[in-house]
Design brief:
Structural class: alpha/beta
Helix content: 40-55%
Shape: globular
Bound molecules: S-adenosyl-L-homocysteine, iron/sulfur cluster
Radius of gyration: 19 Å
Strand order of the largest sheet: 1-2-3-4-5-7-9-10
Distance between the termini: 41 Å
Strand content: 5-15%
Length: 361
């Protein structure tokens, strides 16, 4: 059995049952999987880790995804919008501390006002940083025209998770209406690629009703869509959401955590040159979570630089870490922690996905 597993890791292509076996690895097999992922990562993308300072613009959202704490229907949460000065100040912090890039994230809002606001912010951020700060957006499904306007204003990467590539599962975790249609999400991913963004997607791991087969299919989906970057992490239940009713049917939080790490490692092995984020939801479970993801193949980290109190009310899931990273001491601590994984934070670099560059050449 052991020999068989090490044979799987030698292969260049992987069947679905190989992937399921990799995702089920325990003990020594899991160690082999993690070691292989670390080797591939060093070979294809090197040992650099890139920072993206995460700025959570607003927790208003027009959608009602069944898993998410800031869904429209949750009237127990306070709603906020960062003002322009606060966003610019956070971007300036990232630039001064040589973060290389930032991510602007928010609930899904679609209006001319929102389009224009983001456009204005992008131009200001580009101006304050002499065009040096890279900007990734994570603002949900928008029209192709809006994606184009934001691209023209300076954004060059976009994150839009598919959440689950299994249509049935997608329908179970979203309301059944056109605002939450799977087909629309797919179309949005394709629009982003056509506009010219480096496109990131991802899934939640350990959702109710989800199987290892589904996760293996998610990995194949990411590969088949020619995705440049991935952020995926454990599903963490939130008590003010409809999915909370299934909390007793979930894998333990510990199991979800290790499965998420095996997803990262397996993804690194099969895709080789994409950017993979060590996501915050891992850190919500274990303070060492993001470092572990870096050890097993991730090469991007998104320190939260949302100012002050807002960080605590942008609550997608329970136990979201509220530690400030918009302070120089904490940034230095994070840089030192990453060194302990045998990797190095590359300050002042965009750290574009090598996959995106490789497919263009
Ligand atoms: N509104 C945008 C961006 C904000 S949500 C969008 O939906 O794309 C960002 C991500 O948070 C989502 O893609 C989802 O995968 C994740 N998320 C939401 N609720 C979560 C939960 N309960 N556990 C783990 N991740 C969650
Ligand atoms: Fe809104 Fe995104 Fe949460 Fe869905 S996942 S409710 S779109 S913030």
């Amino acid at each position: 059995m052991q020999k068989l597993f090490s044979h799987i890791l030698q292969q260049d292509s992987f069947s679905k049952s190989d992937l399921v076996q990799m995702l089920s690895a325990k003990g020594n097999e899991q160690t082999l999987l993690f070691d292989k992922a670390a080797q591939i990562r060093t070979h294809y993308v090197g040992n650099k880790v890139y920072f993206r300072g995460l700025i959570e613009l607003s927790n208003h959202c027009r959608k009602n995804c069944f898993y998410c704490g800031i869904r429209k229907g949750n009237n127990t949460t306070h709603r906020y919008v960062l003002n322009d000065e606060a966003v610019i100040e956070a971007a300036r912090f990232a630039y001064t501390n040589r973060f290389g890039s930032i991510v602007l994230q928010a609930g899904e809002l679609c209006s001319i006002r929102q389009t224009q606001r983001v456009e204005r912010l992008l131009k200001q951020i580009k101006a304050l940083s002499n065009g040096e700060l890279g900007v990734t957006l994570s603002l949900g499904e928008q029209s192709k025209d809006t994606y184009q306007r934001w691209f023209d204003a300076g954004a060059h990467r976009y994150l839009l998770r598919i959440e689950s590539s299994n249509l049935d599962l997608y329908r179970k975790i979203h309301p059944n209406n056109s605002l939450h249609a799977f087909e629309r999400r797919l179309e949005a991913l394709k629009d982003l690629q056509n506009v010219g963004y480096q496109v990131g997607t991802g899934v939640m791991i350990g959702l109710p009703f989800q199987t290892l087969d589904d996760l293996a299919d998610d990995l194949r989906f990411i590969q088949s869509m020619d995705i440049d970057m991935v952020g995926m992490g454990p599903y963490i239940e939130h008590k003010d959401t409809p999915l909370y009713q299934y909390k007793d049917h979930l894998m333990s939080i510990e199991e979800r955590y290790w499965l998420a790490l095996r997803m990262v490692a397996t993804l690194r092995i099969i895709t080789k040159d994409i950017n993979i984020a060590a996501v915050t939801a891992l850190q919500a479970i274990n303070p060492e979570g993001r470092n572990w993801a870096i050890r097993v193949g991730a090469n991007v980290i998104m320190p939260n630089i949302t100012p002050g109190i807002y960080r605590n009310i942008y609550k997608l899931y329970e136990n979201k870490p509220t530690i400030s990273q918009n302070d120089e001491d904490n940034t230095q601590t994070l840089i030192n922690q990453i060194k302990t994984t045998g990797n190095e934070v590359a300050l002042g670099e965009w750290g574009d996905s090598p996959h995106f560059k490789n497919k263009k050449t």
